[in-house]
Automatic annotation (TrEMBL), chain A:
InterPro entries linked to this entry: MbnB/TglH/ChrH (IPR007801)
Organism: Sphingomonas cremea
Protein name per Swiss-Prot or TrEMBL: DUF692 domain-containing protein
Pfam (any one): MbnB_TglH_ChrH
Matches recorded under Gene3D superfamilies: Divalent-metal-dependent TIM barrel enzymes (3.20.20.150)
TrEMBL record, chain B:
Organism taxonomic ancestry: Bacteria, Pseudomonadati, Pseudomonadota, Alphaproteobacteria, Sphingomonadales
Annotated signal sequence range: none
One MF term in the entry's GO annotations: DNA binding
One Pfam family here: DUF2063
Keywords on record: DNA-binding
UniProt key word Acetylation: no
Coiled coil: none
Putative DNA-binding domain sequence ranges: 7-90
Name of the protein in question: DNA-binding domain-containing protein
Superkingdom as given in the UniProt entry: Bacteria
Length: 280, 237
């Protein structure tokens, strides 16, 4: 069955996930959580993989770092990918390592020609080591940086052109960044090479406790907002008939499995062409 | 045009130094990155040391975890590997004098996690003779504690709630095994501990038996050996 809309896999939902009959359902995991030698975590993933398509989403390669991707990390990723054969494999347009220190975050950088060269090289290294295409996700941005030479949409398009990578577009990240930095999210989506989008993420955000709505945080702790559903609807309408697999991400304040499944079913219905549900 | 390496060096420094304030880190939104990085490390440590968290309380744990991060920031993106020095760090803190068992409880949390994440053994034989060699299961972890830290640890990790605790202030020996898909924690005695120690490097059964018998002449070593094999703590090669 073709994967349609999926859910970020939460071990607390293991039993319901495994028993869920929804057509086209798939699951995504964070690669780093499964970079372990053995034990129950991998056994659980093995059982999940036997019943569902799986997507592996990495957060630790630091592709926008000046250093080459860490060889040890890359081989752990390769071991995971070889074992579980995910239908999608993605990473971020961000950096998270500097010298010996790792930052558990996705950090921003000025989109210069130099950055383009560096990231292009790092994607090449990654794709060669893994022997397959990876998708690159647009980040959530919080502050203005000086020195950008490329708008993000065109930067991503250029990376696709140079490396043959695909795109994972997180519509919530587009919304959050557009709000925080003051650009038009539809113009952003319009400038993307939409045929290269192989996966879409949808998630919830929240307001910064001190600064309120002027600073939105990509918190993944609330349902997908009405504005993000609308942007998703726009993206689907401007993509053509092959709709990219879409994921509902939730990492904090995790509700019941069935509550997440309702959001997932809404995305699946929209993918199937029921545009009116965007306003439901 | 900012150089990527300079930009990242400056950004990284500003994340780790709460007092830095320049054109970049002076922006209000910079706090989002600072907080996310700090919270990521603190919560990874809390997830790895749940019993320490229960003993000191959420607020105190956060403070201690931030102090720990100043000395030991994460070195890699796999956060289950973070915090390996935490027990040693706790032992060095002057305030833990009031909780002398805390560093040992942290050690036990770590051993539980190591057991949980360890690999599967290559192959397990079911029977053994005096000529067989025995080795530790990859998920076996054990410790000798100069305090009743294991009783304290077990009382807090009891899935049925905190059991009444009246520990005897004497040495304890702890064993973690992973017979199926969950980790089993048990208090063991000194001869059993000695037997496990004898299996750290794979050894013939006869050698293990005589090492334990030499030190504990009154111990029923063959009964111990059966127990160790039955619990999955040691495997026959």
């Amino acid at each position: 069955m073709t994967p349609t809309a999926g859910l970020g896999f939460k071990p607390v939902h293991y039993e319901q996930a495994l028993a869920c009959p929804a057509a086209g359902l798939w699951f995504e995991i964070h690669a780093e959580n499964y970079m372990v030698d053995g034990g129950p975590r991998l056994a659980m993933l093995e059982a999940l993989r036997a019943s569902f398509p799986l997507s592996v989403h990495g957060v630790g390669l630091s592709l926008a770092g000046t250093a080459r991707p860490d060889g040890e990390h890359l081989s752990k990723l390769k071991r995971l990918v070889d074992r579980f054969q995910p239908f999608l494999l993605s990473e971020h347009l961000a950096w998270s390592r500097h010298e010996e220190v790792s930052f558990p975050d996705l950090l921003p950088f000025p989109r210069t020609n130099e950055a383009l060269e560096t990231i292009g090289r790092n994607i090449d290294i990654t794709q060669s080591a893994l022997g397959r295409q990876i998708l690159i996700e647009n980040p959530s941005l919080y502050m203005q940086l000086e020195g950008h030479e490329w708008p993000e949409s065109l930067f991503l398009a250029e990376l696709v052109r140079r490396t043959g990578c695909g795109l994972l577009i997180d519509v919530n990240n587009v919304f959050v960044s557009a709000n925080n930095l003051g650009f038009n999210p539809v113009s952003y989506l319009d400038a993307l090479p939409r045929a290269e989008i192989s996966e879409i993420h949808l998630a919830g955000h929240s307001e910064d406790p001190l600064l309120g709505g002027s600073l939105l945080i990509d918190s993944h702790d609330t349902p997908v907002s009405a504005e993000v559903w609308k942007l998703y609807d726009w993206l689907l309408a401007h993509r053509g008939t092959d709709r990219p697999p879409t994921l509902i991400e939730r990492d904090d304040n995790i509700p019941e499995f069935d509550t997440l499944l309702i959001e997932r079913d809404k995305a699946a219905a929209m993918m199937a062409g029921q545009r009116e549900v965007a306003n439901a | 045009m900012p150089d990527l390496a300079d930009f990242q060096a400056n950004f990284a420094r500003a994340i780790l130094d709460d007092d830095s304030f320049d054109r970049l880190s002076g922006q209000k939104a910079f706090a989002v990155y600072r907080n996310t990085c700090a919270r990521g490390a603190v919560e990874a440590l809390r997830a790895a040391y749940p019993t320490v968290d229960m003993l000191v309380g959420e607020e105190m744990f956060t403070q201690v975890a931030l102090d720990y991060r100043r000395e030991h920031p994460p070195r890699g993106p796999v956060l289950s590997e973070y915090g390996g020095e935490f027990a040693t760090f706790l032992a060095r803190q002057s305030w833990t004098g009031e909780l002398p068992y805390l560093a040992d409880v942290a050690r036990l949390d770590r051993l539980w996690l190591e057991s949980f994440l360890a690999s599967e053994p290559a192959g397990i034989e079911r029977s053994y003779s005096r000529g067989s060699r025995v080795a530790l299961h990859p998920a076996t972890r054990f410790a000798w504690l100069a305090m009743p830290a294991m009783s304290i640890w077990q009382a807090h990790r009891n899935p049925h709630g905190l059991v009444e605790l009246d520990p005897v202030w004497a040495d304890e020996w702890a064993l973690f095994t992973r017979p199926g898909l969950s980790v089993r924690a048990e208090l063991i005695d000194a001869p059993y501990y000695r037997l496990l120690l004898a299996c750290v490097a794979p050894a013939p059964v006869a050698e293990v038996v005589s090492a334990v018998a030499a030190e504990f002449p009154r111990a029923d070593v063959s009964e111990l050996l059966h127990r160790a094999v039955a619990s999955g703590a040691i495997i026959i090669q």
